[in-house]
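One thing: can you check what follows?
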Amino acid sequence: MAAVAYFIALPFIYFISLLPFPVLYLLSDCVYFLLYHCFGYRKKVVLENLRKSFPKKTDAEIDLICKKFYHYLCDLIFEVLKIATISKKSMIRHCSFDAESLALFSKYADEGKSVIMVMGHLGNWEWAGHPFSLLCRQQLVVLYHPLANKYFDGLMIRLRSRFGTRMLPMKTAFRGIVASQHETTATVFISDQTPMPETAYWTMFLNQDTPVFKGTEQISKKLNLPIVYCKIVRKKRGYYKMYATTLTDNPAATAEGEISELHTRMLEKDIIAQPEIWLWSHRRWKYKRPQVK
């Protein structure tokens, strides 16, 4: 059945991808009406996450962010499909780094330094890697969790690697990074996924006790690779600007938990600035902090 669903869906995916952006966003508006008003996809989860994250906001303010989020989520779906056929020129026009960020990556490339990049599910993270692969000299490596459906997993790998990005399964992250030490790479960690509570670093994030994936800190300290935080700002519908900031050039010298706090605080600040473009439908707070025995 998985194969049948894939081969039925594939022609529609490419047909939709070929449509111009105005038509895509018209379709997005239609899907928003169905998703938000008719089906209420994960609306309970979204509203609960928003209320706990912003306890001082009124119900009207929460409802407005919720509606904006669903509008954005639908745009994101169609923007991801657009990757299948978008040209290099159009990709860079719609999503690119600012000049200072490009200069930062160029400096590391000149020095022959690989870097760890950390970011969250804020803005169009699926687009973010393509401008990097097109404009920067490092080999971009993105860590990911494979999908259960091998056919759609293969499709997502093709979309994500279309302009040269290399995909690396999360479970082989450290081994893969070590194996690529002969080349200059930039390895992307998505920091706001939900790790198992027993292995996580725990901190307050968006007003809630939150587990943070330790891998970013642990791997960067073991290999002593500079850590660069990247944020995505949505300038207007379909247009994004990315900004890169070095968190530390010497992770090995940092205290335990320091790196996790640094990138968590940066992401929190960026979410507060543009809350509607974070992935509120994700069950980020499904675990409780383990009790100390």
